[in-house]
Design a protein that fits this description.
By secondary structure, this protein is of the alpha+beta class. It has 17 helices and 14 strands. It has 3 domains: about 150 residues, no CATH class; about 110 residues, no CATH class; about 180 residues. A hairpin with a 2-residue loop joins strand 11 and strand 12.
């Protein structure tokens, strides 16, 4: 059977890639929505990065197309099928980031399946680079946020008196600043890594030197963001909180600082590019690059004959690899592997639940606690599920109070997810997060809780607990809640609910924590979710 080569192979690869994007159009649409979102500009560099990836891919293809040939890889076929099934499972649990990464994995394995690993190697970097515009980097956000607050607070304490840093808050005589999640500098951090990766990709060098360039670029972004936060705080102090960066916006300031920093980085990095990189574990003498002058090198014998051997040199022939795979059969199998996840997802997709409605029923009295109306400006920001309600409880003596929010998700979908980075217990501009941690409350049925101390602008404080309940498990870990929810979906138990419980922090944290612990143990398992539609 005649092999597919050259332009015909290029058309085939293009067809397979486009077919993959068509099968996974929902995830492609989610990625594009992420890149063009006005509410989260962190990944607005996505469209530009996509153009860069397409250019790099095409550049590599032009270099290699003349000797490229189809070479079906069975490992690649299994990788496509496995990535496709992972995409399906991630969809069950509404884990959008895993679906996005699974799509990238499918594209990678499609190349390996059609070309074999050796021929596919030059094209893996352009495809993997697109991860630089996916929200996988959110894991660095809290650490970058904390670092910016700590470092900017430290500089402020040595330049503005009096000044105090408390968690993510920086207090100065003119007012207070909160280093929010959006002030973490994550966007600069991601773009700096992309620029460094593109820089080292274009220059041959050892892995250690590549890592050095990458780490320095990341450091430039981190230092630049700390400088940005400090400038904003300083401008607020100098102008009595009337600065443009305080009242209008400070995004442009951040990008200006980043542009200057990364320009200096590229200028200086060019001076450290080695003319010839010595391989790992190879000494200069072994490489033959040191110890000989130009005249000595020119006077060296140029013969390839080995001294002491009288035999004629054997001509080495590069063996050609015959096409062992029946690509006429393998290509339909590859298309089937690409489509397995979307097809299973379509077959498993449940019918709409628009006819079902739910209600949350709180007990009127719980062992010395009576239900009361909740009256406060505080409310967590949660994507609304199938049912959402709030309530308050007070002791008989009315000397202790707690409040509770329950959000019930029967079946999740985009825009209505229990586990999402869009859900948070703080209220921007009203209730700021002072500190947060994960604790083990010692309550039967609970493995952990997420605890947050909130503070209003008037100084009022609240202690808030947060957790998920799904598949008979209570946890505050996002990834574990997602995993348990997927297990529940496969067992026909798709629901998950989010619980927020809190109290006013009028005494020390230990007393407030004990109060919440006692109340949680009493109300545990007494909240009922009722399917109202089934009763009609």
């Amino acid at each position: 059977m005649k092999s597919i080569t050259g332009n015909r192979l290029g058309l085939l690869i293009g067809f397979l890639m486009l077919l993959t994007l068509l099968f996974y159009h929902e995830t492609v649409g989610a990625i594009w929505a992420l890149w063009t979102s006005e509410h989260n500009p962190t990944y607005s560099h996505g469209p530009l990065l996509l153009l860069v990836c397409v250019y790099l891919f095409y550049h590599e293809w032009r270099r290699n197309r003349d000797h490229a040939t189809i070479d079906i890889s069975y490992v690649g076929l299994m990788g496509v099928a496995g990535s496709s099934l992972l995409w399906f499972l991630a969809g069950l649990g509404s884990v959008q980031i895993v679906q996005m990464l699974s799509l990238v994995a499918v594209l990678l394995f499609v190349l390996v399946a059609a070309l074999g690993f050796q021929q596919a190697k030059p094209y893996l970097f352009p495809v993997l680079l697109i991860i630089g515009a996916l929200p996988v980097w959110e894991v660095f956000g809290p650490y970058l946020q904390a670092n910016s607050a700590i470092m900017a607070g430290w500089i402020t304490s040595h330049t503005i008196h009096p000044s105090v840093r408390e968690g993510m808050l920086i207090h100065i005589p003119a007012g207070s600043f909160e280093v929010e999640t959006g002030c973490s500098g994550l966007a600069y951090f991601i773009v700096s890594m992309i620029i460094a990766l593109l820089f080292v990709h274009g220059h041959p060098m050892s892995i250690w030197r590549r890592l050095s360039f990458l780490l320095v670029a990341m450091l430039v972004a981190v230092v630049g963001n700390v400088l940005r936060v400090y400038i904003i705080v300083l401008s607020g102090e100098l102008t009595n909180m009337q600065s443009y960066f305080v009242k209008v916006e400070h995004v442009s300031l951040g990008w200006a600082i980043f542009f200057i920093g990364i320009s200096i980085y590229l200028w200086q990095a060019g001076r450290f590019i080695p003319k010839k990189e010595i391989g790992f574990g190879e000494s200069p003498e072994e490489n033959g690059a040191v110890g000989l002058s130009a005249e000595e090198r020119s006077s060296e014998p140029q013969s390839n004959e080995i001294p002491g051997r009288d035999e004629e040199p054997v001509e080495q022939k590069i063996p050609t690899r015959p096409l062992k795979n029946k690509w006429g059969v393998a290509l339909p199998v590859l298309v089937a592997a690409i489509s397995i996840g979307p097809l299973v997802n379509e077959a498993y997709r449940p019918g709409g639940d628009s006819g079902e409605s739910f209600s949350i029923q709180f007990p009127d009295e719980v062992d010395g606690w009576q239900r009361v109306n909740y009256q406060s400006s505080y409310r967590p920001f949660l994507q609304r599920g199938a049912a959402m309600d709030e309530t308050g409880y007070a002791t008989i003596k009315n000397d202790k109070h707690v409040f509770m929010f329950v959000n019930y998700y029967y079946r999740q979908h985009q825009g209505s997810e229990a586990v999402s980075d869009m859900n948070h217990v703080s209220m921007k501009g009203q209730w700021m997060s002072v500190d947060r941690s994960r604790i083990r409350p010692g309550i039967p049925g609970f493995s952990d809780l997420r605890e947050t101390r909130l503070r209003a602008r008037n100084g009022e404080e609240k202690l808030v607990w947060f957790w998920y309940e799904t598949n008979g498990v209570r946890t505050s870990k996002d990834w574990f809640a997602k995993l348990q929810n997927i297990f529940g979906l496969l067992q026909g138990k798709p629901s998950i609910r989010v619980v927020v419980l809190g109290t006013e922090l009028t005494s020390n944290i230990a007393d407030a924590r004990k109060l919440l612990s006692d109340f949680t143990g009493k109300i545990n398992d007494k909240i009922q979710i009722v399917n109202v539609s089934s009763q009609n």
